[in-house]
């Protein structure tokens, strides 16, 4: 784990209790989170997604650092947290990340549409890098449309 200018690691910069909370969230994922996690790993083998990735006082559901993309799944608890979500999205945007949101219902009943939306945001690997993954991604997209 790399340190910052003061020699502190990312983990040392997190608010107290964040690491424990992240571990708990990772081990107690919801069904929509598990479904999307599997789909991301299958569809985008050349893109490294992190699950429950801490950003300051916030935790992103899914993050692809190279693509500067954060994917949030809004469950029932998000219905009453609009201001919190807006502040969080603003903070993540200031960090240079694009945030896209889906509901639990989107993931459970329209996973193909969710993946199609994410595909627009995730850049294809450069020619000569991860070619098999890019080909695989194209095949999977094509197979879903049939």
TrEMBL record:
Domain DUF559: 19-120
InterPro entries recorded: DUF559, Endonuclease_DUF559_bact, Restrct_endonuc-II-like
Pfam families in the cross-refs: DUF559
Compositional bias per record (Basic residues), positions renumbered to this chain: 136-146
Record keyword Hydrolase present: yes
Swiss-Prot/TrEMBL keywords: Endonuclease, Hydrolase, Nuclease
Region feature Disordered, mapped onto this chain: 124-146
GO MF terms held by the record: endonuclease activity
Tagged with keyword Protein biosynthesis: no
CDD domains, per database record: Endonuclease_DUF559 (cd01038)
PANTHER family: BLL0828 PROTEIN (PTHR38590:SF1)
Protein name: Endonuclease domain-containing protein
